[in-house]
Every structure is written in C-alpha cells, then in structure tokens.
Amino acid sequence: MALFVHNTPFHFFDRYIADYYRQMALEMERMRRQMFQLVPPEMLMIPTYDGVCSELEPSVPVVDENGERKLKMEFDVKNFKPEEVKVKMLGNNVLQVCAEHEESNDEGATRRRLFVRQYRLPKGVDVEHLRPSLSKDGVLTIEAPAPGLAPSERLVPIQYQADSAGNETAAVN
User: Within a domain: residue 18?
Assistant: First the structure.
C-alpha cells in the first residue's frame, strides 16, 4: 500500500483556507444557536440533516367584517408587475402567493426578485370562493369566507388615566 503525500506549493494555502473555513463554520453554528434562542427552529423553514424541511405555518388571520367571518391576508407586492404575481392553491388547503421579476442591464447582468409565501389554511376556510385582488398601490388582498372559524384577533380595551392622581379614568378602544 502506497501513501501519497501531496506537498505542493499550495499545501500551506490549502491548510490556511481550511482553518478559516472551520472558524467560519463554528461562527455560523454559534449564530444559528443564538437565533434559535429568539425563534424556535420549529417556527422556521429550515433544512434538517436528512434533507426534509420543517414547514413554516404562520397563523392565518380570520377577521369579522360586517357580521361575516372571513380569511383576510394582505401582501406588499408593489415591486412587481400585476402579471408577475400569482396566487395558487396547492392541494386542498395550502395557499401559495408568489411573484417573480427579472431584469437585465446593458452589461448583461441579470437581476431577479422573488417573493414566495405559503400558508396552510384551516379547515373552516371556503377555498372555492377565494378572492384575490390587487390594488393600484401594489397591495395584494386575499379574502375567503371562513364561517366555521373564530376571529384570530380582537380589540382589547386599554385603561386610560388622565392624571397622576387617578381622577379621570376611561376605557379606550
């Protein structure tokens, strides 16, 4: 069995780069641990070691407007043309909003802008009556009836005191 030792002029350089790579990997791991102290990893879409991604499932806003319960979501897509914005249903209950813009300059450089949001809709949302609309100022609003769901937000009154003596108090909505 022969053992090959590679002593090239770049041997020192390779070892030097490998040391920096190890330092960078350790620093990235430290930052990842700090990030997960703020946000638990199950709330993020992160690849795991087996290649499976955990899914990002933010809460879907259900509002009560004019006595009608409905899903209502708004997205800022003002940096995209209307024909670049797409709303898709993936399966029966996954809503995907995506927009893609690509432009090239005179030197041949290409710039690409991508927007993707994906939500798992709760069972009480009527996906057959999904209504996306795009305003002139670039706000995409998606609404759908949700009669079987309770509103996900409610106004909580704030107790207000006018002066430090506490003479005048009132509830403000």
Answer: no
Give the chain's domain count.
Answer: 1
Local confidence pLDDT in tens for the 173 residues of the chain? 455 555 666 666 667 777 788 888 889 888 877 776 665 554 555 444 443 344 444 566 777 777 788 888 899 999 999 999 999 998 888 888 999 988 888 888 888 888 888 888 888 888 888 999 999 999 999 998 887 776 666 667 888 877 665 565 555 55
Domain limits for position 102: 62-145
- 136 falls within a domain: yes
Q: What CATH number does residue 131 fall under? A: 2.60.40.790
Residue 1 domain flag: no
Q: What is this structure's pTM?
A: 0.53
Q: DSSP assignment of 45-112, as one string? A: --B-TTSPBPPP-PPPPEEEETTEEEEEEEEE-TTS-GGGEEEEEETTTEEEEEEEEEEE-TTS-EEE
